[in-house]
Amino acid sequence: MADLASAPPARPLPPSRLPSVSPLSFTLIVVVAALFLASLGQVAPSPEKLANGLPRMADLVGRMLPPNTDPGFLQRMGGRILETLQIALVGTVFGVILSLPMGWLAARGISPLGALRHFPRALVSLFRTVPDLVWALLFVSTLGLGAVAGTMTIVVDTIGFCGRFFAEAMEEADKKPQEALHAIGANRVTVLCGAILPDVMPTLINSSLFALEKAVRSSVVLGLVGAGGIGQELKVAFDLFQYRNASAIILAIFVIVLAMEFLTDRLRAKFQ
């Protein structure tokens, strides 16, 4: 006991060294750093540009105030807002309905297509990776200006979003009910309806609500390329230098998105 009491206190261990970096990783880090430094001079705002832009921004904000509250304009804006919500709602509903069979066909271990499930999965990836505005431009070119092009854009975008999450949810569904149904000779459709969908329904509902919230945001800007909705009114306001109209529309968009986030958050909490 005397030897232990007289022993010197243990020294703290030195901090662990950084993990070693392979030559390939070091080369990639150097390349990314060089690309970042080279891009700084081309796309990053310089302090002079920011200093010159601030007075113009203040002048623009001053010309946008106060927002236009003319009854005729507000009535026209209300019609555009209603059209925006219609685009988001109809596009999301059709997109979710089409995402169910698409997710089933693309799900690993569940799809009746076997190895061919990579084709619907690739189609879902294509829908997801192409930006909304590009789809809107394609549909405006083929279907013409207006809300129909916006609705088709939301449908495609929703399939790209929900198709992936639906497939992943089906792949992670509990296997025991599926095995029980297979054991009594049930076909794939019966297994889907009787075991998979009841198990993953909360996930499907949450993904659908996220898709609806995303669709409202997307439908707001689709009008910038002629696909209907409140974005079309915003583009006209800026083109005609009607900045008080533009500020009123921006405030309306802010309220719409905020209300939709609140509504979908409440619905998600209810279904969890």
Write a compact overview of the structure shown.
The protein is mostly helical and 272 residues long. The chain is 78% helix and 0% strand. The chain has 11 helices and no strands.
Any overview of this molecule?
- The chain has 272 residues and is mainly alpha-helical.
- The chain is 78% helix and 0% strand.
- It is built from eleven helices and no strands.
- It has helices at residues 2-6, 23-43, 47-64, 71-106, 118-129, 132-143, 147-171, 175-183, 188-222, 230-239, 243-271.
- Helix 4 (71-106) packs antiparallel against helix 9 (188-222).
- The radius of gyration is 27 Å and the shape is extended.
- The mean pLDDT is 86.
Overview features:
mainly alpha; 0% strand; extended; 11 helices; 272 residues
Could you tell me the number of beta strands? Answer: 0
Give Rg in angstroms: 27 Å
Order of helices and strands: HHHHHHHHHHH
Distance between the termini: 59 Å
Oligomer: single chain
Average per-residue pLDDT, rounded, comes to 86
Please estimate the helix content. over 70%
Strand content: under 5%
* Tally of DSSP helical segments: 11
Low-pLDDT parts are none
**Biggest beta-sheet profile:** none
Shape category: extended
Query: In terms of structural class, how would the helical and strand content be classed?
Result: mainly alpha
